Amino acid sequence: MQILDCTFRDGGYYTQWDFPDDLAKPYFETMERLPVDIVELGYRSRPQKGYYGQYFYSPVLLLRKVRELAPTKTLAVMLNEKDCSLNELDSLLDPCRGLVDMIRIAVAPVRFSNAIALAEIIREKGFKVGINIMYISSLNENSALFDTLSKGDDVADAISLVDSYGGVSPEQLKLIVSLCKGVTSIPLGFHGHNNLELAMANTLTAIDSGCEIIDATITGMGRGAGNLRTELLLTYLAAKNGLETDFDKLGNIVARFEKLKEDYGWGTNLPYMVSGANSLPQKDVMDWVSKRYYSVNSIVRALQNQKRGEKDNLKLPVLQPALCEKVIIVGGGPSVNEHAEAIRLFVEKDPEIVVIHASAKNAAVFKGVNNKQYYCIVGNEGQRLESVFSAAEGIDGICVLPPYPRKMGTFVPSGLIEQSFELEDVSFSTKYADSHTAVALQTAILLKAVEVFLLGYDGYPNQSLSVKEQDLVNENNYLFNEAAKHFSTFAALTATRYEIREQLSLYQYII
Amino acid sequence: MQILDCTFRDGGYYTQWDFPDDLAKPYFETMERLPVDIVELGYRSRPQKGYYGQYFYSPVLLLRKVRELAPTKTLAVMLNEKDCSLNELDSLLDPCRGLVDMIRIAVAPVRFSNAIALAEIIREKGFKVGINIMYISSLNENSALFDTLSKGDDVADAISLVDSYGGVSPEQLKLIVSLCKGVTSIPLGFHGHNNLELAMANTLTAIDSGCEIIDATITGMGRGAGNLRTELLLTYLAAKNGLETDFDKLGNIVARFEKLKEDYGWGTNLPYMVSGANSLPQKDVMDWVSKRYYSVNSIVRALQNQKRGEKDNLKLPVLQPALCEKVIIVGGGPSVNEHAEAIRLFVEKDPEIVVIHASAKNAAVFKGVNNKQYYCIVGNEGQRLESVFSAAEGIDGICVLPPYPRKMGTFVPSGLIEQSFELEDVSFSTKYADSHTAVALQTAILLKAVEVFLLGYDGYPNQSLSVKEQDLVNENNYLFNEAAKHFSTFAALTATRYEIREQLSLYQYII
Questions:
Q1: How is B242-268 classified by DSSP, letter by letter?
Q2: pLDDT in tens, A282-322
Q3: Sorting pLDDT into bands at 50, 70 and 90, what band is A463?
Q4: Is the bond into A405 cis (omega within 30 degrees of 0)?
Q5: Is B405:B383 a contact under the CB 8 Å cutoff?
Q6: Pairing mode, if any, of strands B489-492 and B502-503?
């Protein structure tokens, strides 16, 4: 049995395939010393749109360094079949000769024959060839794959079964392995994802069923819920089979990745469990989990919709608001509560000011204020609003939701369905249409506001910004910049770390 | 099949069985609405030494509140067999009548007959009785338990198999269940721990093998590596068996516990994996993992020693140092590096000053300083020291280790074995003998120091103290207080948030 560690290749989904040298060096040095047979360090790829880091392209420069750090290991890189045509193989692979030992091709079951065509050429170039078949939790006895699998016999050195959705059960896996073994004699492998915390059990089942190449990553770092942990596999094999493992070295590298995990937060959680149990793709879930304003709840609701094949379950009337000149947009920062008295004074002085609540977090501050109020309902804001206002007192205001269909589903606070509207579109921005700040800004544009004041967009202290927070900051700055073009005044009235065109003070208006 | 949620009972190991009311209320209300059959809310216990919170004693006051929040659920409390004698049952259980439905007895396999004696009386009082057999990963076909298990038939309503070490495999579990079924007809249950990420797979195996009561906790909160997650079991059963589950309610309560988890950090990690794979008790590991100065490495090393039955592997000569009057003790805080120049000046001015490095973190600052230096080697400090000094330059100084035998094992930096000594004892304190600060203070006492100055004990900003940090602060404050009695001067010379008798400034000495 061989162990393949693909921490950088699969973990790159979290870091955009950049890893600092002071992590890369100890990682590859440790791999060299652990009983890991194959190290898959990244992808090779033709140029793609958008930013992808060095382990996505794995340039020769990088391969040379890795080769030096792990001289005795089999080095592998991966190609995505769907992004790779036959005539590109020369330019992609010829420079790797002598540096990389093995090329693995990731392919969907229905496109298996394309992988075979690639494998033929790759093997001729002198590389070992692995074919990674994805989405195996959607396979069964009748899947067409098993009719064509034997074509791999002549061109591949291994076929690995990839539980991309993290949804396969040990019994289903046992069946799939035996179906494979019925038609091919190539060594099989297994790559497990951990949505249902079954990566380890599935791996043990795979080994029992005769799989010979086991994929794992340090701390389970990998797309979505992540993978089988290398340290778990090694610890288990050390205890049960006497596999020689240097736990000092293993412990040190695990500690390094645990630190990185604090920032990126891979590992399973309720949304990944739901996607795994229902074999739904992780890509959306991974985006949603990384956004702070989507609660666990709203993600699970969206997944339940996906499972039922519903994009959304409620079409609301389109918002066509009465116009007004002056608008305040209220964010979720603590400054609103801190300056509550001054804010109420500012708003009540001018009954024409319209209040748009981007977040319901500070809605209580405006209780009893007579100005017209809009509540933007994205993610969990509907439930938050319900918890601010008791059923008895009711909520006086209008709810605004993102355009239909809403990926995240529709939740309108109880009793408010008659006062709820959706945006026709988010016209001022091409991105982030379902962020609550985007909905608030679009509402201000529809109101044809001339002066827009922002309260409670406090931002975060720079030194302690997590990756999630940094993403949110970038996103809001982009939205502020795009929306500002539509207003003569666009100013923050409470202290802010965001890039907002003007920064004024609430207190200059109520002096 | 019945689902038993024991979040507060097993999760209490992390919170000393206190949970705030604003978590308890939504937790029990959510249990009432989820397809959970039994809620085990805590222990009942006679008075114990040390602090244990309200869910450890579960007073009638509390039981009444819980009964109101979850009126339709079977409520259970647990008794520890080893802490419970027959004549205490009246006082422990009579007050619970009408409030609690089920009593579960936790018992080691070798003491099973004691549980039977308790069960008889408990059943007569009108309660349902469950017996939880612990440490099942140490059972096999020849275990004496299987000769006596049938005695449970007349007195118990369920027997649950508890994988206390988190070390059982699905095959072993299948065997144990079938051995049980061979001798008893009582409904069986399973309680899985997640050290090897096999709690879910074992649970599915238990269900397949005919277990009828499945234990789980929200977010897996439970002793050591924790349990099967309730949300995972419910998600799986909802997807595969159509179990009706309110994901909104589930998502909300999971989010609450995920927040708590950020503070306490339950879940598996390399040390728990090692203890699980080798069926070692989690209690020590849980203590060690909660102490910041034990690295993953040193814990794994200690566990490897336990596995081999070694308490420690190296007896060193006892430290008998030359005496000196003036000592500085250097902690690991960043202030040492910030004031490096001034510190070197202070130390070099007086060649008689002895430097004791409680942590090796700041050792580099004292490179080339001619004063005598002691390095306290606890946890990972030995390796840290190695990484500060290259092999070529060597380390000039004396290493001091805690008294023999050292639970955490012995690691001496390479080439330093001739300069390494151990303390005979830590006499000034009855606690924390293997903390690096205790070793440093004891060394100062052995030196018969009169003036002791502390550098780099910065402490933490109060508002963001994690549980671990708070524990360390309490521990160090206790040590400072006890040790100070031995010195005329005991003063911090860099800014500190610790309670150190005197607070002076480094700069007053080098003006």
A1: -----HHHHHHHHHHHHHHHHHH--S-
A2: 777 887 776 656 777 778 877 877 777 776 768 899 999 99
A3: low
A4: yes
A5: no
A6: parallel
Question: pTM value?
Answer: 0.80
Nearest Cα to A261, choosing from B203, B64, B270? Answer: B270
Round to whole Å and give the CA distance between A304 and A294.
Answer: 15
Q: Rounded to an integer, what distance in angstroms lies between the CA atom of residue A343 and that of residue A456?
A: 11
Q: Identify the H or E element spanning B40.
A: strand B38-43
Interface test with B, best of A236, A262, A278, A295 (most B CBs within 10 A): A236
Please calculate the CA angle A424-A425-A430 and round it to the nearest 5 degrees.
Answer: 180
DSSP A402: P
* Structure tokens, A96: 């790797």
Q: End-to-end distance of chain B based on CA atoms, in angstroms?
A: 76
The Cα–Cα gap between B438 and B356 comes to 12
Given B194, B232, B297, which is nearest A273 (Cβ)? B232
Q: How many CA atoms lie within 13 A of B425 on its CB side?
A: 5
Task: Specify the 3-state DSSP secondary structure of A166.
Answer: coil
CA distance A357 to chain B (A): 22
* DSSP bridge pairs for A225: none
Higher-pLDDT residue of B290 and A351 is A351
Distance between CA atoms of residues B376 and B395, nearest Å: 13
Alpha helix locations (H) across B265-403? 270-277, 282-289, 296-307, 335-338, 340-349, 381-388
Instruction: Name all domains of chain A by residue range, CATH numbers in brackets.
Output: 2-266 (3.20.20.70), 326-508 (no CATH)
Encoding tokens for residue B180?
């049980």
Q: A231 to chain B: which residues are within 8 Å by CB?
A: 270, 273
- In DSSP notation, B88-106 reads GHHHHHGGGTTT--EEEEE
Q: Which tokens go with A334? A: 């603590």
CA-to-CA distance for B258 and A269, rounded, in angstroms? 9
Sign of CA dihedral A280, A284, A288, A294: negative
* Chain A neighbors of B278, CB-CB under 8 A: 239
Residues 6+ apart with CB under 8 A from A268: A166, A194, A195, A196, A197, A225, A226, A276, B232
Å between A334 CA and nearest CA of chain B: 16
Amino acid at A118: L
Q: Do A308 and B239 touch, CB atoms closer than 8 A?
A: no
Neighbours of A418 (CB within 10 A): 8
Residue A329 phi, psi dihedral angles, 5° rounding = -110, 125
Model pLDDT, residue B465:
72
Judged by DSSP in three states, A453 sits in strand
Q: Which of A217, A288, A297, A464 to mutate to test the interface with B (most CBs of B within 10 A)?
A: A297
- For chains A and B, what is the number of CB pairs under 8 angstroms? 123
Backbone angles phi, psi at A335, to 5 degrees: -60, -30
* β A451-455/A188-191 pair status: unpaired
Expressed in angstroms, the distance from the first to the final Cα of chain A is: 76
pLDDT in tens, chain B (511 residues): 999 999 999 999 999 899 999 999 999 999 999 999 999 999 999 988 878 889 999 999 999 999 999 999 999 999 999 999 999 999 999 999 999 999 999 999 999 999 999 999 999 999 999 999 999 998 999 999 999 999 999 999 999 999 999 999 999 999 999 999 999 999 999 999 999 999 999 999 999 999 999 999 999 999 999 999 999 999 999 988 889 898 889 988 999 999 999 888 899 999 999 889 988 887 778 877 766 567 777 788 778 777 777 767 688 999 999 999 999 999 999 999 988 988 999 999 999 999 999 999 999 999 989 999 999 998 778 878 887 776 666 778 999 999 988 877 777 877 788 899 999 999 999 888 878 999 999 999 999 999 999 999 998 876 667 777 888 888 999 999 999 999 999 999 998 889 999 998 888 888 7
